[in-house]
Each structure stands twice: as C-alpha cells, then as structure tokens.
Specification:
Number of helices: 18
Distance between the termini: 58 Å
Shape: elongated
Helix content: 25-40%
Strand order of the largest sheet: 9-10-11-12-19-16-15-14
Number of strands: 19
Length: 633
Amino acid sequence: MSLSYPKCCKDPLYVQAELSDEEFFSLLKPAYTEITKPACEKNFDEAWNAYFSALSKNLEKRTYFKIKEKDIIRNYINSEFNEKEIFEALGIANDLTNYRFKLQDDEPFVFSKGNIPWNDDFGNSSYNRLFLTYMSYMAHLANAYIITRDSKYCVFFVDAVNNFIDTCPVPRGDNFTKDSSTWTMLGVALRLNAIMNNVAVMFDDECFNVEDKKRIIKHLYQTAQYVRKYHAANGNHVVVQMAALIGAAAFFEELKDADEWLTYGLARLKRELDEGVFSDGVQAEASPNYHVFVLNELILIKALQLSGFDKIPAELEETIHNMFVALRDMCTPEGHLLNLGDTSVGVSAEKNLKLAAYLYPGEFIFDENVNLSLATVCKFGLIVTKYNPKTQVHLPHFTAHTQSGFLSYRSDFTKNADYMFMHAGEGINGHAHADTLSVILYANGRNILLDSGNAPYVWNEDRKYALYTSGHNTVKVDGKDSHVRMLHWLPMKTAPCKIWVCEETDDYVLFFASHYGYHSFMDPVVHTRKLIYVKDGGYFIVLDLLNAEETHNYEVFFHLPPSDAVFNESTKSVHTCFENANVIVYPACSEENEFKVVNTAYHPNHNSKLVKPTYIISSKTSGNKYFATLVVP
C-alpha cells in the first residue's frame, strides 16, 4: 500500500520533529563565536539575540533588494504609481488577511485562522491544494508590507506559516516527493523561496515576535535540507529547486551547510541549464510558458546578485540575457506568449519584457511608454529605477534561433503587426509537443492560424490531441505522429530537423527546413516545408514536399480561429466568418487531393475548452508529394 502524507503527517516514523535550540546552533560555523559561545554554554536566549543581530545586519544579501531601502522604495512607489495601481496591488494581500484565497477555481476560498486545509483536496480543481501549498501568493503580502508598512500583513504571514508547520511537519525520507502531496518537490522549493523572502522583508516588524522567528527559521532550514536531498533528477523543476537552494545559502550564510548548498546548487543549476536551455536562449521544452517559468527563477538569482550577494558566477548572466532575447522573439503582436506547446492563450510577457528593458537598455523597447510594474520595483528595489529604458535602437524584425528552431518574423512592433512563426527544431521533456515544422500566423495583430492550446495535464483524449501532430499546423503521415511519447512526462526528443534557409529580402521572408520524424518507416519519409511571407500584400505561402518512394497517406492540418467556417466546393478554399476580419486558406488543387473541414478541440487554457474549425487536405500518393497553400487575411 502506498503511503499518503495526510495519513502519516502526525506519525513520528514518517515526519521530523522540530529542531531544538541546541540542534539548531550546532549547525553554525565555528567562526561565529558571538553566537556559538553562548550556545555552547546553553545560554540560548543570548545566542538567538546574537544570531538575529547578525541576520538583521546582513539582510542586504538575503533577499531580492536592499532591505535598508524599504522606506525609499515605499516613497518611490507612492510618487510614481497612481492610487488605482496601488489599490490593485494591495487587493490580493488584503484578501489574504481576511483568509480569502484565490487559487485555481474562479471563486475564492474563505478559510479561518488556524484552519487552512493544507492537506485536503477542495473545490473543482485538483490544483487548488497545490496552489495553496506553493505559497506563491505570499509575494503579494511582501509587496503590500513594503508599500504600507502595515503590520496586518506580517500578522497573517506568521499565523499562516505557523499553521502550516503545525499541520505539515517536514517528512523523513522521500516517501512523499512524488504523490502530489504538500511535500511534492516543486511546491517545496516555491514555498521555501516565498517564506524566506517574507521573513527578510518583515523581519523587523514589531508583530514578528522572537518565538515565531525561531520556529520559522528552524523550519526553513529543515525545508532547505529536504530540497538538497530530494530534488528532482532533471527538468525545469530542478531549476526552481536549485534557485531555492541558492537562496537558502544566501539566507543561512552563518550555517555550515550554506557553503555546500551554494556550491552544489550552482553546479547542479549549470548542468540543468546546459541540458535544458539551448545556446540561443530558448528553453528546451519548446514551450514559451516553461521558458518563462525557468527564466523567472533565474531572475530571482539575478536579483540576489544585484542586492549584493556576490557569489553568483558571471556566466549565468549570458544565459539570462539570451533567454530574455528569446522571450522577446516568441511574443505575439499583442505582447502575449506564443500559444505553442503547453502555453495558454493570452499570457502576458509584459512584466518580464519591461524588466529586460531596464536591465538591458535599448534591446527590449517596443515603444517609449515602458514603465516597471509595481511588483517588479518591490522585488528589485531602486536599482532598476536607475536604468534608462528609453534608449532607441533598431530591433530585429526577423530572428532565427537556429539551435532551438524558433524562427519568427514580425512586420513591426505594433499590436497590429503581421507575425509568423515556424518551429523547426527539437523539443525535449514533458511539455514538448509533436509539432515539428508547425506554423502560427498573425495578420494585423490577429491570430489566423493557431495551435490547439493547453489542455489539462490529464492523460485523456483532449490532452493527446493537443500534444500530437494532428493538433498542430503541420503534416501527418500514415496516421502516425512525428514524435512518439514513451510516457506522458517522459518523452524522447521530438523529431530531428535541418534548417536550410532563413532569409529576409525587400520582397519576402523565407523559412525553409526539413524534419526526419518519419525516417524510421520501412520506406522513410522526409517532410520539407517552406513558409513564405509576401510583404507586398501581407499574405503567406505554405509549401510542403514529402519525399518517399512508396505509397503513403498525407494529411496537412490548418487550425483556424473558433468561428463558423465556409468551404467553397469549386475552389476548395475555406474561410472564417467573423464580422470584421477573416482568413481564407486556398490550396493549389490536385485531383488526387481530398478536402474536409472538421471541428476539433481548442483549449485556450486548462479551464476552458472551445471548438475550432480545422481544414485538412489529404492525399494517398506514391513517390514524392507536393502541397501548396495560400493563407490570405
């Protein structure tokens, strides 16, 4: 029988006791004699006073901005942001102080002091408990405290964390790291970072009493050790866990384990980034959402470095910069993440791109109205306000990230731009889709060929459709996918690719590549695609060549925006039926081709499912086969 944390969380066989004062002070480096000497004499009150004094004096290097600037930051926010912006920033934090938690469901959950259901499933989504235990919402408390210095935010934070420690003691061993429990490793790392940051921000508040500080600090140490011992073997979760471990090394620099945590965390992070981020800056799962997921963790390390923690290697800077550049290029005209892989529709990249504009002046300016978000100022402090993001440079319209195969072009940097993207590279790990040589197109700022979306992470027909080849704007051969998954979260690399040409002229833009996902067939098939944007007219041409000798069945998929779609029998074209702007997909006709329009699933996000028209051109042919298609807005 498998163990369940909720059933075992009170059993000392499976959970650790809280550290005693003697156990905690035995962890300190001998050099801190002002702390260790009274501890050795069992004078723990004096030892704690000395430890808190050391902690308070050196908080600069333990969080993401200079603590001594809190009052200056608050004044800056009150002068640079309007009342509405500040009110909205305080909204979530004020709800939390009333025990109103906005998690995964549409409506918030209301709990009571001392009765937060950390170990229970509730509501309509299985993600509610996970989001509750991740504690990412604690950042809103820290921001609200910086803005107002109101102790009510500290009181809620301390009460909630104490309730968590009462209910969810740290496990012994790794029994509960993979069962979607309170101690799943991703959640542990996110929670560790969230609590450490709030302790640093609120440390000097009069409502943060000595006994609560002792207890929470001991718990943080045990949590950091848990991360060190039981972190994931690979994947984007490792980045989160190592970022938390590096943060713990900064927070607990007086402890013996801190140096090992830092050395190990940096080495293991480097290994994961070498494997998980292409040299061109694109995260290897080929999913913009998880690109940002990883980048956000590296931003935390960058923030530590800017605050004065000088043990972060300079080589990380190049990776962070390259990931910001790649993020800029995978954004749609409206400033959202490209709906590729496991990325929901409408996810804004604005916060990160504005931060990049301040960190790297001149490289990330879409217009002159670049203002940092209030949350970014709270996280980074005054250092980002000293940058001048107004520097004008020529931003590239045409970008080819050739290692990852992320190829993109935009006609300009307005919200009404034409934009095209082709994925001509491999994806690695669980969030990669069988979308090789798929395309996503925008005209006048509107998505005219789209992906099938981000279906819930449940291994069912909707999820399979979103992952597999037929859910993307590409070609399927003999009913097979270009990439076969061994398990849901343990797939092999997606189909290998070769990029032949990426070029821009005065008249057109061309992406030209082949993939070899069907090379394992007894009669190998090579899919070669040219995607062309014609500048004079603003339309797109999709040319497909399938190289083979024997007979195969080919299907070309074009996924249109949710609407009614009209099929023209005489021209074999399909067009959408919106009031203002539409798209027509116009194939070069061939007697051997068959044409149909079917309704298929479209998941803008995990919580919504729509129907979209999908145009399929198919042909059963011997030898080489050509398809030519116009996509005209």
